[in-house]
Amino acid sequence: MKHFFKHIVTGILRIEAQMVLARHKPKIVAVVGSVGKTSTKDAVYTALSREFFVRRSEKSFNSEVGVPLTVLGLSNAWNNPFAWLSNILQGAWLAIGGGSYPEWLVLELGVDRPGDMQSMARWIHPNVVVLTRFASVPVHVEFFPTPEALIEEKCQIIKSIKKGGLLVLNTDDDRVLAQRDRWQGETVTYGFAEDADVHVVDFAITYEEKNNYPKGVVFQMKAKDQHNILVTLAGTLGKSVGSAVAAGTAVALHAGSSGDMIAEAFEKFVPPPGRLRILPGIKDTLIVDDSYNSSPVAAEHALETLSEIEWGGRKIAVLGDMLELGKFTSEAHRKIGRLAGTLVDIVATVGVRAREIAQGALDAGMKDGNVYQFDSAREAGEFLQNEIKEGDLILVKGSQGVRAERVVEELMANPERKEELLVRQASEWERR
């Protein structure tokens, strides 16, 4: 019954969303990939919003339900049937012409199962498609015969780009660049490679003068016919944020913005919670909160980011299950464990699958006394409260189902600000 109700509601919302798009004709940016979609979506929104009326997907609204909700400007009603009825009525009002509407929509499009992107491509016809990054073992691959089949599904959206549209490709991923031949129109590249149309240079971590703790990143972007664009971001780490900003810059330049306007826009850019965000921890520790989600390529990036930080104390990695990897689950976890075992001082795992991470760390030569295993995030957080010491640097990462943000909640210096700083703080999540 619940599945039937969801199917009916989703169908109605999709029809209303199609009517809204036909009536208001906004320009659409579709952000697609296996890694970095949400950060890139937010960066594109930031780059455009300095000069245009823009709407973006809330949080990670990227599914058959989330995309129509974004188009209609509505919230997730979760399990409240009356709230869903209200959504339908509001969608109907907008479909027949009620209210103003954005000039641009920035949509994050995700795939769970075969046919998902094909279904969205039938009614989402973007002006711009941004491909972020794929992975050799991507999330959701368990529902596909091969990783290549999942990439093929995601790239179906390229076929629906409007005439005169733009394809934006990440030069740092050969799998992304390989999609260039799918589109005969304009293509722009971005990334750290020097031959990218918008490329990042002089990327560096910035540090506090008082205690030499990392405080953010600084870098420049080079783009054709533009002065170098200087970007300084506080409270976040990782080259992935540089890629996201470069993608946003590429889209904004295509839309007609100048480098100066884009630089001004990014002065206020705040990457979303749970994506390599820097948070003060108890006992004068520092947390790198990457708890939003996890996959092999994202976990590898997080660990490499941790290793790049100049740090005098211990480095601790709290790593949870990576879900939806199917037959690749065991080896993918063990590989991450082997990497962690060479880069950090202590590994703590959360979840049944993550026990393979612990084994990988031991295989890499980490001492048994420096590897801890827990069944739940809350249990791990409570244990680490007593285990951590002043001057520790703690990375926290895990798939959504692990609820790794609960580890961060136990260790953060300002838990009263959790609703502002952490992912999944809505009341619906708290009940799960």
Mean of all residue-level pLDDT scores? 94
The profile of the biggest β sheet is: 9 strands, mixed
Roughly how much helix do the residues carry, as a percent range?
25-40%
Rg on CA atoms, Å: 21 Å
Please report the distance between the alpha carbons of the first and last residues: 21 Å
Strands side by side in the biggest sheet: 2-3-1-4-5-6-7-8-9
Unreliable stretches (pLDDT < 50, length at least 5) are none
Which word captures the global form?
globular
User: How many strand units?
Assistant: 15
Q: What is the structural class? A: alpha/beta
Approximate strand percentage: 15-25%
Number of helices: 16
Describe this entry's structure for a reader.
This protein is an alpha/beta fold and 432 residues long. Helix content is 38%, strand content 20%. It has 16 helices and 15 strands. A hairpin with a 5-residue loop joins β8 and β9. The protein is globular and about 65 Å long. The two termini are 21 Å apart. The model has no long low-confidence stretch (mean pLDDT 94).
